[in-house]
Write a structure and sequence with these properties.
Layout: H1 8-16, H2 21-24, E1 38-41, H3 52-60, E2 65-67, H4 73-86, E3 89-92, H5 95-99, H6 101-108, E4 114-121, H7 128-139, E5 147-150, H8 159-172, E6 178-179, E7 185-188, E8 191-194, H9 198-212, E9 216-221, H10 233-245, E10 250-254, H11 279-293, H12 295-298, E11 302-309, E12 327-331, E13 337-344, E14 347-354, E15 361-367, E16 372-374, E17 380-382, E18 389-392, E19 397-402
Helix pairs in contact: 3-4, 8-9, 10-11
């Protein structure tokens, strides 16, 4: 899709390329339950752990896409088979995909476990032209399953350079989605801080998504290393809900399995190198279930606006200077918070998020009688039945809507 296609329909068509099969039927007369694509980066390594039990364990953790780092065709084909058996889709990679792309694609393009083709991680501008040629060779044999690569975060280029980087990516590689990584939470003493450019990155990618009509995919960091902490549930929520509140149409975790520790001191991914689960496994599983219960809010949505609250709002963002429709008060008492206005079908969603990674905050939220509050169990109730006091745990959201 090219830049002239800005409609929500265009975004849905792009997103549908990599959605699980039930989502592809969403446009039929009988609407099925929405599902968020959730991808596990560095999932199950080849070798002793590559078996159906471990792939079902991945599925049980709430993932529907597996991206194992595999460097032989034999192992890649085995991963396709195991993904299909477990009800997953596999992002396919092997050396032959680059050296013999047409022949390799013809071999796997009809496999029911195939979800897409991996090209490269974090390319520089000088790499984009060749990546575009490679993607074109793959697309010449398979237009159903898209190619996939992941872009750098904004701090590598600066804001202006990042805009140019994304423009070149669109023109030279022209994939049906924009995927980028940004790991925003860093240890600082006894607490965790949010990188100052994190929300600027989301602002820029969301703007590029609107410009091109292509959905964007975003990450949460689930593996501690260097100055990145072992994530808490609140810190995972902060990342994933912030991604969704800016309009992300697929979510990714880096990583599922703990990579080798030789370079970056990776540790405490959901699954350790020895195959045992860490505490992060249950956090990711619980969060994925929570997010899927709310998929109808986010999948196919249009972002009308995003504003921030707090004593100091993040760089590149806008403060909340006026209340959304039917809201009389949203006050975070100087604490960092985010307010997103989404539309999906006939509903307008106003979603408030605590963006403090360390602790819960108290907020005063007051609405008129037209606003419904969407509770965590999926039921709705008139928001004005409650008093104005709301307590939001770290990273948590309150979802309101009106027709």
């Amino acid at each position: 899709m090219r830049k002239t296609h800005h409609s929500l329909l265009a975004m849905l068509l792009c997103a549908a390329l990599l959605l699980p099969a039930p989502m592809q039927a969403r446009g039929k007369q009988k609407r099925q339950k929405a599902e968020i694509p959730i991808l596990a980066w560095y999932s199950i390594p080849p070798g002793e752990y590559s078996n159906i039990e471990r792939y079902r364990e991945l599925k049980e953790c709430g993932f529907n896409y597996s991206f194992a780092h595999i460097y032989s065709k034999e192992d890649a084909l085995k991963a396709l088979d195991l993904c299909h058996r477990a009800g997953l889709k596999s992002i396919f990679m092997c050396p032959e995909l680059e050296t013999e792309p047409e022949a390799t694609v013809r071999q796997v393009r009809k496999h029911p476990g195939l979800g897409g083709y991996f090209l490269r991680d974090e390319p520089h501008n000088k790499d984009l032209e060749e990546l575009g040629k490679w993607a074109s060779r793959i697309k010449s044999e398979d237009t159903k399953h898209p190619c996939y690569l992941n872009l750098f975060p904004v701090q590598v280029f600066g804001s202006e350079g990042y805009i140019e980087h994304m423009r070149l990516f669109d023109e030279l590689v022209d994939l049906p989605q924009i995927s980028f990584d940004h790991y925003p939470l860093l240890r600082q003493g006894d607490s965790v801080i949010v990188r100052p450019e994190y929300y600027d990155n989301l602002e820029l990618v969301a703007a590029e998504s609107r410009r091109t009509g292509k959905p964007f995919w975003a990450f949460a960091l689930s593996t501690a290393h260097m100055d990145y902490p072992v994530p808490t549930m609140g810190q995972l929520r902060l990342q994933m809900y912030s991604n969704l509140l800016y309009g992300a149409q697929a979510l990714q975790y880096f990583t599922y399995w703990t990579p080798g520790t030789e370079t970056w001191d990776f540790h405490q991914a959901p699954v350790r190198q020895d195959g045992l689960r860490s505490r992060v496994y249950e956090e990711v599983r619980t969060l994925n279930q929570e997010l899927q219960r709310r998929a109808d809010v986010f999948m196919g949505c249009k972002v009308e606006s995003v504003h921030h609250l707090g004593a100091q709002i993040p760089q590149g963002t806008r403060p909340l200077n006026a209340m959304p429709p039917h809201f009389l008060q949203i006050d975070s008492h100087g604490q960092p918070a985010l307010v997103s206005h989404l539309t999906n079908g006939k509903r307008h969603y106003i979603i408030v998020q605590n963006t403090n990674p360390n602790r819960g905050i108290c907020m005063d939220i007051r609405t008129d009688e037209q606003i419904q509050r969407l509770r965590q169990d999926g039921t709705s109730v008139q928001a004005s039945l409650y008093d104005t006091g709301h307590y939001l745990e770290a990273g948590m959201v309150e979802i309101f809507y009106y027709e």
